């Protein structure tokens, strides 16, 4: 319970700082708008005909009312506490900011980019936007221009189909501003001062789930929702890190609050889940085994009910999320028979990963994880019997029979 109380206090501070970020630097804009409006009225009073004066006074009163209203909202934000539909209120305040044109839409992002002298990282990502896709919490910030918690790392995917990471690393991460922590064809980690950058070279995201915002290539909302769902499932199955699990749950509530229409588009979320499941499979295979997937959604719902029962303040973030996600069985709406079948297959393959690895060793002359080239005798015609989602991945990989990801897909599509 102590961890949850700490997280609740941290959430209040993060939300309060998020609120303040909307208005803090805009007091000057309030005054500027006020005096500009006053100047217009004075000029028109001197130069216009008398019949226009009443109109200008009405305009002045209206603008003055807007300014007073926003200042009132700001005072309320200073006293902010967790209350009903907190995330809805963030959206409302953010919309007020945009409607009143208090500051540029990218105010949050520019603040984040320059925070802690991290502008070089974002300049790098813009320069090589065609080569990398940003995912995770950083992409949520870039997508919305606002996020409930501070982002302290960047997760990247490689925007090409080649299986070797070595050349990519030489091309893009030779810059001295990055300090390498570890790097191979499965996972790479770099640091810029205390800021972490992680790359998953094996993971693939289809083009329909990418979007370009302010010259950044990022994942769209459906991919973000799918990612958070899989993360939540993993943390619910392995509950050692409660803090991270709560962060993921709050991220989902945040997405639900701001993108409710997309969240309820079950067909598109299901499609994203199908592609992401296979893309994650490429990564999961090389990670130490633990139970990351399940089709026992009743168990997951029971776990969520316990979490919400012990943390009533979670419901206050958005008081309809619990009904839609838990009581109305959201898992059953986005996980259909097809994806459940794939989950069962992948779970079995991950349990028996050593058997597949022995087969790969027989095909490979390198016999290590860092070399992902295998020499198999598979024919291209074999791919035509694959499921539609698996078929898309092998097409993306140009039917490369020597790519270990294609080999893993053959195992996934073997007819029992």
Task: Describe the protein.
The chain contains 20 helices and seven strands. A hairpin with a 4-residue loop joins strand 3 and strand 4 (188-192). With 416 residues, the protein is of the alpha+beta class. The radius of gyration is 25 Å and the shape is globular. Helix 1 packs parallel to helix 4 (86-99), helix 2 runs antiparallel to helix 3 and helix 9 runs antiparallel to helix 10. The chain is 59% helix and 8% strand. It starts with a helix and ends with a helix. The protein has a five-stranded mixed beta sheet, with helices on one face. Strands 6-7 form a two-stranded antiparallel ribbon. Residues 22-30, 99-116 and 367-372 have low confidence and may be disordered.
Proportion of residues in β-strands: 5-15%
Please state how the strands of the largest beta sheet are arranged side by side: 1-2-5-4-3
Largest sheet: 5 strands, mixed
Task: Tell me how many strands there are.
Answer: 7
Question: What structural class do the secondary elements suggest?
Answer: alpha+beta
Head-to-tail CA distance between termini: 47 Å
Overall helicity: 55-70%
Specify the overall morphology. globular
Radius of gyration: 25 Å
Low-confidence stretches: 22-30, 99-116, 367-372
| SS summary, helix count | 20
How do the SSEs run, as a string of H and E? HHHHHHEHEHEEEEEHHHHHHHHHHHH
Average pLDDT, all residues? 75
């Amino acid at each position: 319970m102590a961890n949850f109380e700490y997280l609740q206090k941290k959430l209040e501070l993060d939300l309060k700082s998020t609120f303040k970020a909307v208005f803090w630097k805009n007091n000057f804009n309030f005054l500027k708008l006020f005096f500009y409006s006053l100047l217009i009225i004075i000029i028109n009073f001197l130069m216009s005909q008398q019949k226009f004066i009443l109109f200008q006074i009405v305009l002045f009163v209206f603008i003055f009312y807007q300014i007073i209203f926003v200042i009132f909202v700001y005072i309320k934000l200073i006293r902010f506490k967790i209350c009903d539909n907190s995330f809805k209120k963030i959206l409302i305040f953010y919309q007020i900011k945009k409607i009143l044109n208090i500051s540029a839409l990218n105010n949050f992002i520019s603040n984040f980019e320059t925070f802690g002298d991290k502008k070089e990282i974002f300049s790098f990502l813009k320069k090589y936007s065609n080569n990398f896709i940003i995912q995770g919490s950083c992409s949520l910030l870039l997508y919305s221009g606002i996020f409930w918690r501070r982002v302290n790392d960047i997760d990247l995917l490689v925007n090409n189909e080649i299986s070797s990471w070595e050349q990519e690393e030489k091309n893009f991460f030779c810059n001295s501003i990055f300090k390498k922590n570890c790097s191979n064809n499965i996972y790479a980690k770099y640091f810029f001062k205390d800021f972490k950058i992680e790359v998953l070279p094996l993971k693939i995201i289809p083009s329909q789930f990418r979007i370009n915002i302010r010259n950044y290539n990022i994942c769209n909302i459906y991919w973000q929702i799918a990612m958070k769902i899989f993360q939540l499932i993993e943390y619910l199955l392995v509950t050692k890190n409660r803090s991270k699990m709560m962060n993921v749950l709050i991220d989902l509530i945040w997405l639900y609050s701001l993108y409710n229409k997309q969240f309820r588009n079950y067909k598109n979320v299901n499609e994203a889940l199908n592609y992401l499941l296979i893309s994650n499979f490429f990564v999961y295979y090389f990670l130490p085994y633990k139970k990351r997937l399940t089709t026992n959604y009743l168990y997951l719902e029971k776990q969520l009910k316990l979490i919400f029962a012990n943390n009533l303040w979670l419901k206050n973030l958005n008081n309809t999320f619990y009904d839609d996600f838990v009581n109305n069985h959201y898992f059953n709406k986005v996980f259909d028979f097809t994806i459940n079948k794939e989950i069962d297959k992948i779970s079995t393959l991950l349990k028996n990963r050593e058997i597949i690895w022995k087969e790969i060793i027989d095909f490979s002359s390198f016999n290590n994880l860092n070399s992902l080239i295998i020499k198999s005798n598979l024919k291209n015609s074999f791919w035509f019997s694959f499921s539609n989602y698996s078929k898309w991945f092998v097409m993306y990989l140009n039917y490369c029979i020597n790519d270990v990801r294609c080999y893993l897909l053959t195992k996934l599509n073997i007819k029992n």
